[in-house]
Design goal:
The protein has 212 residues and is mostly helical. It contains ten helices and no strands.
């Protein structure tokens, strides 16, 4: 039901096409009874996480989306007074940043309404990302009524850059990117260069088939 397969994924192509939320749902919770052991065997195979090349492809794609939505489009929408578009870019950024945190922890991200809360349990970047994303989403509530709107947006842009910097630092710590840039768009190709499978490499750093 969740994977669309009656067997564990046998190829990188099968792995990469399964929606990540489905994998989270299929591996969540405890198994109370499994006499034959077949269900447990299947689930443990999923819990072993993505093959390395699939994980790298997803991380590369997240680099591109975080950069495009958060570091590039978000401040530009704000500067042009396109605040609905800015909110849409902010939402794309938040989703991609949370997804990146799960990938860096070798964990599947859950359904979107649980994603932010689930960050707290991640040992890598979890608590920092939870706090900063909470501030990004809620800082309008804490800003004094008389404060200029430009202060609000300046703070949000700084939060986006701060979250991006945390991700870049972790990418380099894990040896996933060799780029020294502070723009995540430059890290996507660096991550993708480490993929060994030629079919996955041809997808390019922008594409994650499980997100389409």
């Amino acid at each position: 039901r969740f994977t669309g397969l009656d067997h564990l994924p046998r190829s990188l192509q099968e792995w990469i096409r399964i929606p990540e939320g489905n994998l989270a749902a299929a591996t969540n919770g405890a198994v109370f009874m499994d006499g034959p052991g077949e269900f447990t065997r299947f689930r443990e195979g999923l819990l072993a996480f993505y093959p390395p090349d699939v994980r790298l492809q997803k991380i590369a794609a997240r680099c591109m989306k975080i950069a495009q939505a958060g570091q590039y489009n978000y401040p530009r929408c704000i500067s042009r007074g396109e605040f609905v578009a800015a909110r849409m870019a902010e939402a794309e950024f938040i989703g991609a940043a949370i997804s990146m945190a799960f990938l860096l922890n070798h964990a599947y991200k859950p359904f979107y309404k649980w994603m932010h809360r689930a960050l707290i349990g991640l040992p890598i970047l979890g608590s920092e990302m939870y706090t900063r994303l909470s501030e990004l989403a809620c800082d309008e509530e804490t800003l004094p009524a008389a404060a200029p709107r430009k202060s609000l947006y300046r703070n949000r842009i700084q939060l986006v850059e701060g979250i991006s910097a945390l991700i870049i630092k972790e990418l380099r710590r894990q040896g996933l990117s060799n780029s020294t840039s502070d723009f995540l768009l430059d890290h996507g190709p660096s991550v993708q260069d480490k993929i060994e499978d030629p079919t996955i490499r041809t997808l390019g750093p922008w594409l994650d088939p499980s997100e389409h």
